[in-house]
Design goal:
alpha+beta; Beta-lactamase; five-stranded antiparallel β-sheet; two-stranded antiparallel sheet; globular
């Protein structure tokens, strides 16, 4: 028994000394210091291990303003940004991480959640989509009307109909509140951490906010859907639906994007594929665009908080021409 105890003690001592000193140890230099390796713990510097894919390496990113290359007067804006999708480069950035009211640019997230969760050919029976705020854009959907998800999306994105956005929310999630939770969950999954939505349409609420950079992230996700690009590229569309009494109805709507309707000329050598506008007293005049240069390279362009429509389009045109080459 004494012999067995002595052997066990010797073995434990050996393990202790081995653990402290290692065996065949070697200092391996690293970018931020060094790490000691031994026979039992080895870092093999093979070609497969020399690079690590960084989180969000596929995104444009900057924490600073990038305005030096532009002559745009940004003093009256809330935020702005130009993002090169191919080179993952921020070409212009002004207050891109500040909390701002997104107005109807909110509807981009509404559409994205719908695309993620819904068949566009589904028929929706309209419930209570009453919005009593004065001066808001409404299609005037009535309780009992029947209309496809696709047509509701056109009303939401082309005409910016707030009642259509609310109808989509109710159809997808059952209640507006449940849909808003889906919107915020989606924003979080995209890394849009400066965002909090309280409704699906963008009418003003002090707790409803995002940032220009978060809008870039959300819009970038949405344009992965071909149907979304088709929506934002539409200058006019005829909506077909059925009233509660069974009477067929149709109505042609026109885009709020004045580049598409040719009320304003596109920036020189830049094609406007489409986009979304927004406007409230709190948000000012806003627009986000999906654009391409003469070589068909894609960009996302954002201007938030212009004082009026003419300033909005003039600023966006100048910003695109200064930044995209």
């Amino acid at each position: 028994m004494k012999c067995l105890s002595r052997l066990l003690s010797i073995f434990l001592c050996f393990i202790l000394v081995f653990g402290i000193t290692g065996c065949g140890s070697e200092d391996l230099p690293m970018q931020y210091g060094s790490i000691t390796t031994n026979e039992n713990y080895i870092i093999d510097s093979t070609s497969e291990q020399t690079q690590m894919t960084l989180f969000a390496s596929d995104y444009c990113a900057t924490i600073d303003d990038v305005t030096n290359s532009s002559t745009v007067d940004y003093s009256g804006l809330y935020a702005a940004g130009i993002y090169d999708l191919n080179d993952k480069e921020v070409l212009y950035s002004y207050q891109a991480n500040e909390h701002i009211n997104p107005a109807s640019l909110t509807k981009i997230m509404t559409a994205l959640v719908v695309f993620d969760n819904c068949n566009l050919d589904d028929i929706v029976t309209i419930g209570d989509v009453t919005i009593t705020e004065d001066g808001v854009q409404l299609f005037n959907l009535q309780t009992g009307d029947q209309i496809s998800v696709r047509n509701l999306l056109y009303i939401t994105m082309v005409y910016s109909g707030n009642d259509a956005a609310l109808a989509l929310a109710q159809h997808v999630a059952g209640t507006e509140e449940a849909f808003v939770q889906m919107m915020n969950d989606k924003a979080y999954s995209l890394g849009a951490t400066n965002t909090n939505f309280t409704n699906p349409h963008g009418l003003s609420d002090e707790n409803h906010y995002t940032s220009a950079y978060d809008l870039y992230l959300i819009f970038r996700a949405a344009v992965q859907y071909d149907e979304f690009i088709q929506l934002i590229n539409t200058a006019s569309y005829t909506v077909n639906y059925t009233h509660a009494d069974g009477e067929e109805a149709s109505r042609t709507i026109t885009s709020t994007n004045k580049y598409l309707t040719q009320d304003y000329s596109c920036p020189n050598q830049i094609s406007i594929i489409g986009g979304k506008t927004g406007s409230t007293m709190a948000a000012g005049k806003c627009i986000i665009l999906y654009a391409t240069d003469s070589l068909n390279n894609p960009y996302i362009c954002i201007v938030m908080g212009a004082s009026d429509e003419e300033t909005l389009y003039q600023t966006m045109t100048q910003l695109c021409e200064d930044s995209i080459h």
